[in-house]
Every structure is written in structure tokens, then in C-alpha cells.
Amino acid sequence: MDSKKIEKKCSCGYDKSHSMIKPKCHYSGWGWVLFSIGMSARPIRVDFVCEKCGEMIDSSTELVVLKKYVGR
To answer: pLDDT tens digits for 35-59?
Structure first.
């Protein structure tokens, strides 16, 4: 078995490290309230979506990942 993790790719052939793959953050209702008054909020889920084909190649609800996208 190969010890390397296989990166998911969209049908265009892009993986998460490519500039065509953009994070799409999803927030709770409370998160949207914070944004409306000018504060940052941590998302509840981040989807990684190809800008070209629109395919979602990965999604995460892990706290470590969510912290990277606070306020985006």
C-alpha cells in the first residue's frame, strides 16, 4: 500500500492546491448576524469548489480547517 494520501481532483484535473479551487464557507444563522454588524465568524463547513466546472472536490467541518477561514 502507498503511504501517501491520494488528493481528490475535479473533472478538470485540479486538486485543492490549485488556484482554480476556491473555498466556499457556510455559516450558521448566528455567523450571519455577526457579519451583519461587522464582526468575523467561524464557518460551520468549508467546501472546496472548482471555479471552472463547479464540482465540489472536498468538504470539511474539522475545527483546524474552519479556523483557517474565519471571516472569509
So the answer is: 788 888 889 999 999 999 999 999 9
CA 23 – CA 46 distance, rounded (Å): 6
Tell me the domain boundaries of the chain.
Answer: 21-68
Strands 21-26 and 45-50, sheet pairing = antiparallel
Rounded CA-CA distance 27/40 in Å is 11
Instruction: Report which of 31, 21, 36 is spatially closest to residue 70, judged by C-alpha positions.
Output: 31
d(CA 60, CA 46): 5
Provide the 3-class DSSP secondary structure of residue 45.
strand
Collapse the DSSP code of 67 into the 3-class scheme (helix H, G, I; strand E, B; otherwise coil) and give the result: helix
